[in-house]
């Protein structure tokens, strides 16, 4: 799973992904990815913000370079090509096949930190979720808070959050559409959960500043 303490390694992996992007017909992929094709590039929204994918790399619309984890996820998203429709069925990360290897790390760097960060702060979590383009998801009928986030055009994430009470600590579970593996591999799906955690954390810091 993605380790932010190894930036050089991931920059090398990203350079290889960019080389592969140079061979891709963006115009043909745009509709399947839910992206906009503009002047030889793809514009893809992630958590409410647009990013430009070109043959030479990925930037935001102002030309700034996003964090390496997001660049890699966007590159893989394009290279996968989007080969299915969403199922409408939500599952947790552990429900995907072959996730045992990732689960301990996933809990430690994605779900547990979110639970601790927003324990006793439901209103702050709602506000932060809305800043990321999230919407309430009451149809799941579970949790003290349940929000859906536009992580990628054809790949939403959901968060089920139970706040702490007298007996239990707060808990956070990230949910994925059952067909998410048609758009990204397991490691990238895990990293997408990490990006959600990082974005919520940054939004909370924005509220406090």
Note the main attributes of this structure:
globular, 209 residues, 4-stranded antiparallel beta sheet, alpha+beta, single chain, 5-stranded antiparallel beta sheet, 2 domains
Question: How would you characterize this protein structure?
Answer:
42% of the residues lie in helices and 22% in strands. It has helices spanning 7-21, 26-33, 68-80, 100-118, 122-131, 186-208; strands at 36-38, 41-46, 49-54, 57-60, 90-92, 135-136, 145-152, 155-162, 171-177. The mean pLDDT is 92. The strands form two sheets. The chain has a five-stranded antiparallel sheet with strand order 5-9-8-7-6, with helices on one face. A four-stranded antiparallel sheet has the order 1-2-3-4. The radius of gyration is 17 Å and the shape is globular. It has two domains: 7-80, no CATH class; 90-208, no CATH class. The chain is built from six helices and nine strands; from the N terminus they run ααββββαβααββββα. β1 (36-38) and β2 form a beta hairpin. The chain is an alpha+beta fold.
Give the count of helical stretches: 6
What is the N-to-C succession of helices and strands?
A: HHEEEEHEHHEEEEH
What distance lies between the first and last C-alpha atoms, to the nearest angstrom?
A: 31 Å
Biggest β-sheet: count, sense, barrel?
5 strands, antiparallel
Structural class computed from helices and strand pairing: alpha+beta
What value does the average pLDDT take? 92
Number of strands: 9
Query: What strand line-up does the widest sheet have?
Result: 5-9-8-7-6
| Low-pLDDT regions | none
The domain tally reads 2
User: What would the principal axes of the Cα set say about the shape?
Assistant: globular
Strand coverage percent: 15-25%
Helix content: 40-55%
Radius of gyration: 17 Å
């Amino acid at each position: 799973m993605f380790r932010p303490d190894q930036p050089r390694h991931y920059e090398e992996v990203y350079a290889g992904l960019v080389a592969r992007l140079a061979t891709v017909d963006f115009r043909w992929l745009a509709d399947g990815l839910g992206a906009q094709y503009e002047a030889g590039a793809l514009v893809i929204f992630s958590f409410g913000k647009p990013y430009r994918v070109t043959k030479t790399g990925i930037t935001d619309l102002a030309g700034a370079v996003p964090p390496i984890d997001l660049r890699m996820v966007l590159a893989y998203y394009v290279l996968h090509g989007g080969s299915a429709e969403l199922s409408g069925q939500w599952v947790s990360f552990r429900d995907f096949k072959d996730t045992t290897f990732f689960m301990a790390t996933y809990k430690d760097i994605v779900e547990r930190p979110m639970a601790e960060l927003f324990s006793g702060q439901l209103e702050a979590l709602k506000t932060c979720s809305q800043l990321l383009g999230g919407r309430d998801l009451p149809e799941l009928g579970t949790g003290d808070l349940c929000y859906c986030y536009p992580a990628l055009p054809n790949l939403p994430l959901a968060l089920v959050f139970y706040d702490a009470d007298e007996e239990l600590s707060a808990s956070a579970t990230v949910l994925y559409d059952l067909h998410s593996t048609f758009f990204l591999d397991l490691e990238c799906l895990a990293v997408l959960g990490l990006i959600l955690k990082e974005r919520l954390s940054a939004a909370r810091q924005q509220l406090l500043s």
